[in-house]
Design brief:
Largest sheet: 8 strands, parallel
Radius of gyration: 17 Å
Number of helices: 14
Number of strands: 10
Order of helices and strands: EHHHEHHHEHEHEHEHHEEEHEHH
Shape: globular
Strand content: 15-25%
Structural class: alpha/beta
Strand order of the largest sheet: 6-5-4-3-2-1-10-7
Length: 269
């Protein structure tokens, strides 16, 4: 019996942010229609629900939807958080302290257009900040995970970057949130990376990509998700797999893409 839970990230609606900003009741209705049971929220998409956790909790309890994670992205360019970064992280931690099973998903912003410029220094700075946030979060009962991406200037994009990252976070409380699409885009063997760091895997993102490295709606790309699902089942993974569609189709019809992703997951879980 599978222990995996499946949910939807709010990013497909973020691709039409002006239309969907703050429309959390709509997100929950659509993800339930798609067959998902959890939501991972970008802060920008929560609107007033981010400043009123009780309102969000009441809505999610009414709908029967779990808050699986809150996505929190900053630059972290210095060896210590800036005062503003420290304050913003603490706000996010306090928010999540009211949702005991939700994770704090930490994602870096690729702020420097020259990826190789002082690469190790930038990586060390982000690792130090992520570790510090995860330790503060742990004190409040909040589990943190780190989510690398594959933008051209991302400082955690290739296999060597990931290995450098996890060598330095081996004793950190922060977990690994592998994004299969981002790993494939960086030329990484996603299944091998997940196998090699299985003890750290605490949250998973799925997005699809075609042969030309363009994002695609789930099932319309080249990524072998079934092998990853099978491996996670074999190793009794108990966390979430979140679909995070960034395909051009989501710009045209965010809701239709969420429904299509749900159909793909139902057929392959």
């Amino acid at each position: 019996m599978s222990l995996i839970q499946y949910g939807c990230q709010t990013y497909p609606w973020q691709m039409n942010v002006e239309k969907f900003h703050g429309q959390v009741p709509h997100f929950t209705d659509m993800l339930l229609q798609a067959g998902f049971t959890g939501m991972e929220a970008e802060i920008v998409m929560l609107g007033e629900y981010y400043t009123d956790w009780a309102k969000l909790k009441e809505l999610l309890d009414e709908k029967g939807v779990a808050l699986a994670a809150l996505a929190f992205h900053l630059d972290w360019l210095h060896a210590r958080e800036t005062d503003e970064e420290f304050e913003q992280a603490n706000i996010a931690i306090d928010f999540l302290s009211h949702f005991p099973t939700a994770k704090l998903l930490l994602g870096h912003v690729a702020a420097d257009p020259e990826r190789e410029h002082c690469l190790r220094e930038k990586q060390d700075a982000q690792i130090a900040c992520v570790d510090a946030i995860a330790r503060r979060a742990m004190e409040r009962g909040v589990v943190s995970v780190f989510h690398p991406n594959s933008a051209p200037n991302s400082i955690f994009r290739y296999t060597d970057d990931y290995e450098y990252l996890w060598d330095r976070l081996a004793k950190s409380p922060v977990g690994f949130a592998p994004d299969v699409g981002h790993m494939i885009n960086g030329g990484i063997d996603a299944l091998a990376m997940i196998r090699n760091h299985r003890e750290k895997v605490a949250h998973v993102h799925f997005k699809d990509m075609d042969a030309s490295h363009e994002w695609a709606t789930m099932g319309h790309g080249v990524i072998d998700f079934k092998s990853i699902i099978d491996y996670l089942n074999e190793t009794e993974y108990r966390g979430w797999i979140m679909t995070e569609d960034e395909s051009p189709d989501a710009v045209n019809d965010s809701d239709a893409v969420v429904l299509a992703d749900g159909e793909f997951i139902r057929a392959n879980r």
